[in-house]
User: Fold this.
Amino acid sequence: MRIAVLGSNGQLGNDVCAAFRANGDEVLPLTHTDVELASAESVNGALSSIDPELIVNTAAMHHVEKCEADPMAAFASNAIGAKNVANWGQQAGATVAYVSTDYVFNGKKSAPYVEDDPASPLNAYGITKLAGENYTAAICAKHFILRVSAIYGLHPCRAKGGLNFVELMLKLSRERDKLRVVDDEMVSPTPTVQIAQQLVALSRSDAYGLYHGTTEGSCSWYEFAGEIFQATGTNVRLEKADPGEFPAKVQRPKYSVLENRGLKAANLNQFTDWREGLEQYLRARAQAGAAAARA
Assistant:
């Protein structure tokens, strides 16, 4: 299958490219240098020149503070970009996979969100990603929308200074004797490699629609940090931050746990428990480090 990956140089996009290549597909990577998603002309030209059967859209403006400061730019990238891709996909008879976010919810629920829970985003990022979902679903008949949460991968996340949460915690543990981490935000930390594998599995089906795609179980950021330090043998004093100790510049959901109900119903769920996901990431991290040392 010919697969175009938008945002191919991103934290998730890199692993999506690798997963489809490992599956024997022809991968056509596209970055912002190759295509401007907010421009229908640019999207049509870039995609028509390579004629993919599937477009995986991992590209997004996802820096939450920057989205809030410039919502028009966020809407252009996350919503109008999705609209342009969906239009091309529908006209070409291609499938479109749009990667969305847990931030479409307000976090006021006390049980995992399922796909048909009403969306109620708190910030511009969530609003624009929800709009991208709606454009994709309304325009392109053959679509997959996959909502993910608290993602981390081996490739740098440019919006977060190149450090995912795992790497940030390990970096800070080398610089400080004590760390304080919030314990009042619940997530399901999800490695990008598992999201990529899920997208491959979806691409081999015709079970089009909206799905939640995160690891099983949940934890607070404090609990996640504790698991990171235990798994890596890191000796640092970890404390729970007081409520409001680290005030966010932009309102975020406190509870971002998603249930993969749709994937399980379709017998397509590829995700493991979040702890196993962390172990998988740390093994890959160690292998990458060893390979770099040999080079």
Q: What stands out?
A: The chain has ten helices and twelve strands. The longest helix spans residues 71-92. The longest strand covers residues 95-101. The mean pLDDT is 93.
